[in-house]
Amino acid sequence: KSRPHWLHSLDNYPTMQRSNDDWFIIFTPQNLGELQSIHIWHDNYGTNPDWYCQEIIVTEVRNNKLWVFEVEQWFSIRESTRNIEHTIYTSNSLNNWTKKTRKNVEMGIRENHLWASVFIRHPRSPITRCQRLSVMLCTILCLMLSSMMFYEKVHTNE
């Protein structure tokens, strides 16, 4: 069992926002050992303190170890769980084919689907929403132009 680590942003950057990935670095003097579980909570502070955590990935750089904690829980006193703290145990999701496939499809839609990526793009994506919207508009205009080019008026003999 280790001591609690308080994760926050030093430069008042908003963390735990919708559709964001938050990365925190913790320096420890010794190896982490074998992680079996993590206990996470929050202080329920702010105008909308509820947040959903999908997963937590812990990487120990020193020994090149990786632990995946699939949280998939709401931290809220208003939701049905009414809990702002959870204990999560490690999972073997690295070998779970269905979860890998689901994440791959989800990321593909977020990054590569022309229409959906405007609204649900990944926060670290180098392509902005404005650029995606410009590509969408160009596609629509090209389709309209090609439709006008090949449109013919049908002549009927009367």
UniProtKB/TrEMBL annotation:
The chain crosses the membrane at residues 133-151. The gene is PKD1L2. Residues 1-89 form the PLAT domain. It holds the Pfam family PLAT. InterPro entries: PLAT/LH2_dom (IPR001024), PLAT/LH2_dom_sf (IPR036392), Polycystin (IPR051223). This is Polycystic kidney disease protein 1-like 2. Coiled coil: none annotated. Signal peptide: none annotated. Keywords: Membrane, Transmembrane, Transmembrane helix.
